[in-house]
Each structure stands twice: as C-alpha cells, then as structure tokens.
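Hi F.,

I've been meaning to write this up properly since the lab meeting, where we talked about keeping a consistent format for the predictions we share between groups. The idea is simple: the sequence comes first, exactly as it goes in, then the structure tokens exactly as they come out, then a line or two of notes. No screenshots and no reformatting. I'm using this chain as the first example so we have something concrete to point to.
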Amino acid sequence: MFMIGILGGIWVFAEAYTALARFVWSGEMGSATLAGLLGVPFWLLAVGVAVMALGMFALLRKLERRTAEVK
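Output, unedited:
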C-alpha cells in the first residue's frame, strides 16, 4: 500500500508539473538555510534538533511502556 501511494504521488506530481512549474520555482531563495533564516549558528541548530529527537524518543518510550501496562 505504501509503494502504491508513493508511486501514485509521483505520477500525480509528474502529470501536474507543467501546470505547477511556475509556482514550484517562484520562491527561489538561493542558498537559504534554516540556520540562516533563524539567525543561529548551524551547530546550535543541529544540537537543538538532536535534543528534540532524543526528547521525542524518551517520550515515546514512556508512552509505549504505559500502553503495554494497560494491555
């Protein structure tokens, strides 16, 4: 089912691309990066993303244990 969805999305985008091409390329920002847009050093952004990922892993681990206890 996932592969059908992926292939279907690719096909729809390919068919619609000629109509969407102008819009797709209308927001050309050059070499803009998230760190540059936020005005923070790249290393700080990378550390922040890593901390958020670890926090989500810890939260999901707690939720997984809680749902295992209920069953």
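Notes:
The first helix runs from residue 2 to 24.
The chain has a mean pLDDT of 91.

If this format works for you, I'll send the rest the same way.

G.
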